[in-house]
Amino acid sequence: MSVHEQWKSKLGFILAAAGSAIGLGAIWKLPYVAGTSGGGAFFLMFILFTILLGFPLLLGEFIIGRRAQSDAISTYKKLAPKTKWHWTGRLGVFTSFLVLTFYSVVGGWIILYLFQALTGGLNGLSQEEYGQLFGNIISNPIEALIGQIAFLLITVLVVSKGIQQGIEKATSFMMPALFVLFLLLVARSLTLEGAMDGIRFLLVPDFSQLNSEVVLFALGQAFFALSLGVSVMVTYSSYLPKDQNLPKSALSIVGMNLFIALLAGLAIFPGVFTFGLEVSEGPTLVFAVLPAVFNEMPFGILFFIAFLILFLFAALTSAFSMVESLVACIAKDDQTKRKKYTWISGAIIFIVGIPSCLSYGLMADFELFGRTFFDFVDMTVSNIMMPLGALAVSLFVTFKVSRADLIDELQHGSKVGKIFFNVWFYLLRYVTPLAIIIVFLDVLGVGVFDWF
């Protein structure tokens, strides 16, 4: 039976959408990118770009999603019939699928680490031994595949239950728990001897560290941290009632995303400075450096378990949204087929994700353009497909959808004025596409900043 579900409550939607945005990008990627990109200078640029560029694009996805009340591909068919714009939706859905093939691998690593922590496998090791443990876990094909399966099983079980009974119910528990655990960790972190050094590194901009590379990193992170350009926000907003205040919802999600990014930095950097570890450790910061930090604290293993749980919650809430985007396009509102298609989608994601899962073990010697399979898919999705998707959405909203329809949709549930609309429209039509093109050209090796 074709029934387009809706969120049970306004808060449920905000928590689910925030959960989609607050994923591995905010907790795993942002701290190590900040650590390698000058700390406070990077974080300041990230905040500015998120507000000035990420917010307009997020609101644009909300508008077209609720306007069409359909899945990501059908949205473009409804709003621009007999055109090729539906390929924007197809690109977004396919990008979500590819993200899940390696995202589920990292989710599996978190589960494996949580198991190690709960069974005492992380107690009393040195930083070097934590690094070796991480290498052993990701290179063991059986363990890595089991972790990936476990992560996908949880995701599929939740999404198969639908919007209200599955995603909304799960995120309504996970997101408040995530915030509570984060606040607990930050409170503990701020009591460490080197806390002020960590705070200064994160919050006091050193503009001597500001260069074109830092600006580009911050620009890219601002787009990717909000799950933009992959159709998930179009899908989630399609379940909204007309009385939802879209600008307020988008602003709430941006605010929560920035707050979590701040908490992640405050939870991590004080400990890194206190124990004399490298802030520029890179992607292994969470898995190899943080355990060493917590190991130096009284009851540190309990705090690290709390961190892993919130890390898992953040990863799962993002995975829910991406799987939902896929299932919505396949099931077409036929709730009798949702469960079957969710399980089929999960199985296909797992199969296609096997090469990424084995990239640090059995397939470590297999490379594409000098990268492991995992890194190649990650690079292709993050640096090419997501920017293209975000660019297409910004152009579609501002050039294909009429101003009258945009204003009409915005004014359902909110009282936006002419000034707000004009500023938002200008940013989305001109500034956001330009910023995306700059990032994209940099990825292709064309250094735009080198022209000046």
From TrEMBL:
<protein>
    <submittedName>
        <fullName>Sodium:neurotransmitter symporter family protein</fullName>
    </submittedName>
</protein>
<feature type="transmembrane region" description="Helical">
    <location>
        <begin position="251"/>
        <end position="277"/>
    </location>
</feature>
<feature type="transmembrane region" description="Helical">
    <location>
        <begin position="42"/>
        <end position="64"/>
    </location>
</feature>
<keyword id="KW-1133">Transmembrane helix</keyword>
<keyword id="KW-0472">Membrane</keyword>
<feature type="transmembrane region" description="Helical">
    <location>
        <begin position="214"/>
        <end position="239"/>
    </location>
</feature>
<feature type="transmembrane region" description="Helical">
    <location>
        <begin position="12"/>
        <end position="30"/>
    </location>
</feature>
<feature type="transmembrane region" description="Helical">
    <location>
        <begin position="297"/>
        <end position="320"/>
    </location>
</feature>
<dbReference type="InterPro" id="IPR037272">
    <property type="entry name" value="SNS_sf"/>
</dbReference>
<dbReference type="InterPro" id="IPR000175">
    <property type="entry name" value="Na/ntran_symport"/>
</dbReference>
<keyword id="KW-0812">Transmembrane</keyword>
<dbReference type="Pfam" id="PF00209">
    <property type="entry name" value="SNF"/>
</dbReference>
<feature type="transmembrane region" description="Helical">
    <location>
        <begin position="341"/>
        <end position="364"/>
    </location>
</feature>
<feature type="transmembrane region" description="Helical">
    <location>
        <begin position="138"/>
        <end position="159"/>
    </location>
</feature>
<feature type="transmembrane region" description="Helical">
    <location>
        <begin position="91"/>
        <end position="118"/>
    </location>
</feature>
<dbReference type="GO" id="GO:0016020">
    <property type="term" value="C:membrane"/>
</dbReference>
<keyword id="KW-0813">Transport</keyword>
<dbReference type="InterPro" id="IPR047218">
    <property type="entry name" value="YocR/YhdH-like"/>
</dbReference>
<feature type="transmembrane region" description="Helical">
    <location>
        <begin position="423"/>
        <end position="449"/>
    </location>
</feature>
<feature type="transmembrane region" description="Helical">
    <location>
        <begin position="384"/>
        <end position="402"/>
    </location>
</feature>
<feature type="transmembrane region" description="Helical">
    <location>
        <begin position="171"/>
        <end position="190"/>
    </location>
</feature>
